[in-house]
Design a protein that fits this description.
It is built from two helices and five strands; from the N terminus they run H-H-E-E-E-E-E.
């Protein structure tokens, strides 16, 4: 039941790898990346996002992310879509 959903998650690195496989493209070269509605859901942001140097639009809506932090390596990011998550805290976005 619900315990399964709480213990399983998709990491950002896994979601990015799946995106690369689907689009047959390196994520680090992409201008737009959509990793919405992951199953199991993303629950936190991690350092793998800093590799997305060219990304201008990052969509991570409809997941279970509860904290926004660590987007510092994404110097070209212009649009960040994080709707339908569980955001409780926003910190250190430029580190």
């Amino acid at each position: 039941g619900t315990t399964f959903l709480r213990t399983k998650m998709t990491s950002c690195a896994q979601a990015i790898k799946a995106w690369e496989t689907k689009h047959e493209q390196k994520a680090e070269d992409a201008k737009e990346i959509n990793i919405t509605c992951q199953i199991p859901p993303l629950t936190k942001l991690d350092n793998s996002l800093s590799a997305l140097k060219c990304c201008q639009k990052l969509s991570m809506s409809t997941n279970m992310i509860d904290r926004m932090a660590g987007l510092g390596g994404m110097s070209n990011l212009r649009i960040l879509s994080m709707g339908r998550n569980n955001i409780k805290k926003i910190e250190k976005l430029d580190e």
